[in-house]
């Protein structure tokens, strides 16, 4: 999940085994993605037999990665080396598009 | 004549949905059960802390997600069920498969973890507003993967 930025990410209040020395406040990243027609068509066919819609799974994973990267970028700009208490949330903005939001607290750990 | 053809299409979709949907579901459950047994010694817990005071080597976020949909036959059944009300068993299995699959993917994304703390499950509909055309949900599982410095599995430590 971590990128080249080398920032520790957890969804706990702290990083276990490390001490927090400074708080930088909330950082967030979000992205809104729409499905493309090809994927939609395949999903429509897959919908007859049910099961996993791989195209959509990939799409959501890519967008979540993107949102996380933006959050980490923001944390790096603040000079943080960890983001704690990370949450994800998904909202459907308009038909066929989803917004993915990642947010957390940027901190500096020892 | 045209309405007869429409009826025929619906019947074919129902048969295809029922047979292939059932096959896919039983296969998926078999795979889920196998992988759950394999990852049994790596617990995923909703606690924020772990009682055992052991040195932790690494902590990082682990994420797993899946988008699943129901088959045509089950959607048809749901339509009937909506007339009488009550529990929608066909959707229960959809959500169950999704959650278990997402949890497994979260675990599999960090193969050398010993424990997953503060695990959360989130379900969202990504097909809102499209009516019956695509009925699917996304399940997201995430937590903090913990790797202990001494490298023992949690289960064996707890029973000692």
What is the count of helical runs of chain A?
2
Distance between the termini of chain A: 21 Å
| Overall CATH architecture of the domain at 8-34 and 63-109 in chain A | 2-Layer Sandwich
What string, H for helix and E for strand, traces the elements of chain A in order?
EEHEHEE
Number of helices in the DSSP assignment of chain B: 4
Helix content of chain B: 40-55%
CATH topology of the domain at 8-34 and 63-109 in chain A: Translation Initiation Factor IF3
List the main descriptive attributes of the protein structure presented here.
heterodimer; A: 110 residues; alpha+beta; Translation Initiation Factor IF3; four-stranded mixed beta sheet; 5 strands; 39% strand; B: 160 residues; three-stranded antiparallel beta sheet; 4 helices; 3 strands; elongated; disordered C terminus
Written account of the structure:
Chain A has 110 residues and is of the alpha+beta class. Chain A has a domain at 8-34 and 63-109: Translation Initiation Factor IF3 (2-Layer Sandwich). Chain A has two helices and five strands, in the order E-E-H-E-H-E-E. Chain A has helices at residues 37-49, 54-78, and strands at 8-9, 20-34, 51-52, 82-92, 97-109. In chain A, strands 1-4-5-2 form a four-stranded mixed β-sheet. The longest helix of chain A is centred in the middle third of the chain and has 25 residues, at 54-78. Chain A is elongated, with a radius of gyration of 17 Å. The two termini of chain A are 21 Å apart. In chain A, 35% of the residues are buried. Chain B is of the alpha+beta class and 160 residues long. Chain B has one domain (2-159): Hypothetical protein apc22750. Chain B (Translation Initiation Factor IF3), CATH 3.30.110. Chain B is 48% helix and 24% strand. Chain B has four helices and three strands, in the order αβααββα. Chain B has helices at residues 2-38, 72-84, 89-109, 154-159, and strands at 56-69, 115-125, 136-148. Chain B has a three-stranded antiparallel β-sheet. In chain B, helix 1 (2-38) crosses helix 2. Chain B is elongated. The N and C termini of chain B lie far apart (74 Å). The model of chain B is unreliable at 156-160 (pLDDT under 50). The A-B interface holds A 1-2, 8-13, 15-18, 40, 43-44, 46-53, 56-57, 60-61, 64, 86-92, 94-96, 98 and B 13, 16-17, 20-21, 24-25, 28, 48, 55-57, 59-63, 65-72, 74, 94, 101, 109, 117-118, 120, 122, 124-130, 133-136, 138, 140, 142-144, 146.
